[in-house]
Amino acid sequence: MKLYDLLFEAKQTNDKFEEFAETRGKGAAKIASTAEEKGGLALLTWHHFKVKAAYYRKATAGKFDVDSAKKEFTETLKGISLDMTAIEFQREVGRLEVLGELIIRDKKGK
């Protein structure tokens, strides 16, 4: 995917929330799969993107609860620290990203 494509995707706001989540979920799954195949240090990337799958599936199914997500976002943000392992850090930052992304997208309307 080229930078132009990423920017174009970010600008599109006519798609429904569920379609947005499905598209983002497919992208995250592809990145996770590629990272898993590479192995080694790329597994940190796998942890980062793998955690996002459940959130995208939930949003795609129309079961995203923005109030619950906001609480989880705040709890996740508070829990991130430099005392974590690299894997824990990647998982929690991935969780923070997907929650923030879906909350922000939800504000634009479903």
- Give the % helix: over 70%
Tell me the total number of β-strands: 0
Sketch the major β-sheet: none
Shape: flat
Element-level helix/strand string: HHHHHH
Secondary-structure-derived class? mainly alpha
Strand content: under 5%
Q: In angstroms, what is the radius of gyration?
A: 14 Å
User: What is the overall pLDDT average?
Assistant: 90
- Helices, by number, come to 6
Low-confidence stretches are: none
Measured distance between first and last alpha carbons: 26 Å
Short summary:
The chain has 6 helices and no strands. By secondary structure, the protein is an all-alpha fold.
Tell me what you see in this structure.
The protein is mainly α. It has six helices and no strands. The protein has helices at residues 3-11, 17-38, 42-50, 52-60, 66-79, 86-107. Helix 4 packs parallel to helix 6 (86-107). The mean pLDDT is 90.
Question: Keywords, please?
Answer:
110 residues, 0% strand, mainly alpha
Please give the structural blueprint.
Elements (H helix, E strand, L loop, with lengths): L2 H9 L5 H22 L3 H9 L1 H9 L5 H14 L6 H22 L3
Helix pairs in contact: 2-3, 2-4, 3-6, 4-6, 5-6
